[in-house]
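step=encode ok
step=design start
structure_in=
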């Protein structure tokens, strides 16, 4: 079975995230990995007041994650998110294969046009720049 690329937006409890941002983000990554996925990009999107209270919470931290996983493992991941205490809500979408590279480049902070040009210059193979390695560290 071929792996698909997915995008998950989670709304996290802002209090949990404020107390331990590294631990909460690592917990999201661990849930995906344990469900059989491979995380590509995992980052904070924004923190804002919620449109309506969720379990008494007025504010939420929005966390964006892109990962590869077999489609049959997605329900297992969904269940894990429901059991995860810091996660208030989550939504997972399958990305169109034609859009995966530009979306991942944008999520990493690179220009999608620059990524496509460098891929063409290298004969279709992506190069890893030192700035990407530094950003991940």
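sequence_out=
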């Amino acid at each position: 079975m071929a792996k698909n690329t997915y995008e998950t937006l989670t709304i996290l409890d802002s209090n949990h995230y404020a107390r331990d941002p590294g631990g909460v983000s690592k917990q999201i990554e661990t849930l995906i990995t344990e469900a059989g996925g491979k995380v590509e990009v995992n980052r904070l999107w924004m923190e804002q007041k919620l449109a309506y209270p969720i379990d008494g919470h007025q504010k939420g931290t929005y966390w964006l994650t892109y990962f590869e996983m077999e489609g049959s493992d997605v329900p297992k991941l969904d269940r894990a998110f429901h059991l995860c205490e810091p996660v208030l809500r989550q939504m997972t979408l399958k990305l169109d294969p034609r859009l995966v590279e530009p979306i991942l480049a944008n999520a990493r902070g690179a220009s999608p046009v620059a990524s496509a040009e460098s891929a063409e210059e290298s004969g279709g193979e992506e190069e890893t720049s030192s700035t990407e390695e530094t950003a991940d560290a």
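step=design ok
step=annotate ok -> The chain has two domains: 1-95, 97-137.
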